[in-house]
């Protein structure tokens, strides 16, 4: 099956059913707000590295986390009880996304969070669509995650940790916040043992798309999560 070449400046995608077996659907296009939001609404996301064209993916099966299914291990629960990390939302988005890239680079791994991606998602953050959940210790950012929020969905992009359990605590905060404001689905995109251990599970792509259509019908919580009508007090120990 051929991989589609996208036309620049026209944010359209082929049917996701025409993706390759590995999930690759299309190449090219751009990272404008219009195209990125169009992609997420259709269950598609960009993932590529330096030297490659923009690659668009829609894997089957899809890894998702339902907020009330997060698994908290005994050791993580002990960490939560200590309350050593301060949780913040949307106070250091650019630092979070850069740290997600830097941690992988420093470990000798490739990263799709190249400068163009960082710029595109920072612009989505400024528009009120992209958000960060941050773990702080003694005034220093030590872990966190970022993604896109639309309707009752959160599309997770990446997470990082420079201290044990700091990114897990941020994920606990995200699921807690999600249940408070009505986010029903956290998209994890690709399957990893780490996310499976935290309660994420695979579902068929067709089921995922049906969920998207349902959960994206509702009003999006747009704007900074630390400056809105929703209480930002996260009760981690109730999870």
Folded structure, characterized:
The protein has 239 residues and is α+β, with helices and mostly antiparallel strands. The protein has 2 domains: 56 residues, Leucyl/phenylalanyl-tRNA-protein transferase, N-terminal domain (Alpha-Beta Plaits), CATH 3.30.70.3550; 176 residues, Leucyl/phenylalanyl-tRNA-protein transferase, C-terminal domain (Aminopeptidase). The protein has a 7-stranded mixed sheet with strand order 6-7-8-9-10-5-11, with helices on both faces. It has a 4-stranded mixed sheet with strand order 1-2-4-3, covered by helices on one side. Strand 3 and strand 4 form a beta hairpin. The longest helix is centred in the last third of the chain and has 16 residues. The protein is globular and about 50 Å long. The N and C termini lie far apart (45 Å). About 3% of the residues have low confidence.
The secondary-structure class comes to alpha+beta
CATH class of the largest domain: Alpha Beta
Radius of gyration, rounded? 17 Å
Query: What is the share of helical residues?
Result: 25-40%
Overall form: globular
Helix and strand succession? EEHEEEHEHHEEEHEHEH
Low-pLDDT parts are: 228-234
Number of domains: 2
Counting DSSP H or I runs of 4 or more residues, the number of helices is 7
| Range of strand content | 15-25%
Q: What is the rounded distance between the termini?
A: 45 Å
Total beta strands: 11
The largest beta-sheet arranges its strands as 6-7-8-9-10-5-11
């Amino acid at each position: 099956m051929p991989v589609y070449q996208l036309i620049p400046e026209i944010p359209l995608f082929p049917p996701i059913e025409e993706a390759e077996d590995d999930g690759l659907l299309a190449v090219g296009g751009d990272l404008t707000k219009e195209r990125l939001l169009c992609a997420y609404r259709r269950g598609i996301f960009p993932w590529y590295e330096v030297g490659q064209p923009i690659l668009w993916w829609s894997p089957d099966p899809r890894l998702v986390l339902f907020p009330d299914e997060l698994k908290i291990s005994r050791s993580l629960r002990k960490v939560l009880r200590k309350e050593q990390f301060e949780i913040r939302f949307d106070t250091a988005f650019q630092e979070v996304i850069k740290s997600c890239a830097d941690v992988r680079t420093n470990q000798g791994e490739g990263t799709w969070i190249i400068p163009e991606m960082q710029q595109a998602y920072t612009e989505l953050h400024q528009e009120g669509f992209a958000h960060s959940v941050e773990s702080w210790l003694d005034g220093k950012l030590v872990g966190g995650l970022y993604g896109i929020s639309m309707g009752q969905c959160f599309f997770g992009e990446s997470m990082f940790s420079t201290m044990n359990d700091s990114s897990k605590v941020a994920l606990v905060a995200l699921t807690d916040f999600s249940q408070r404001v009505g986010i029903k689905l956290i998209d994890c995109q690709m399957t990893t043992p780490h996310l499976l251990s935290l309660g994420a599970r695979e579902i068929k792509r067709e089921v995922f798309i049906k969920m998207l259509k349902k959960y994206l019908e509702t009003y999006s919580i747009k704007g900074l999560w630390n400056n809105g009508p929703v209480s930002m007090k996260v009760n981690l120990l109730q999870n």
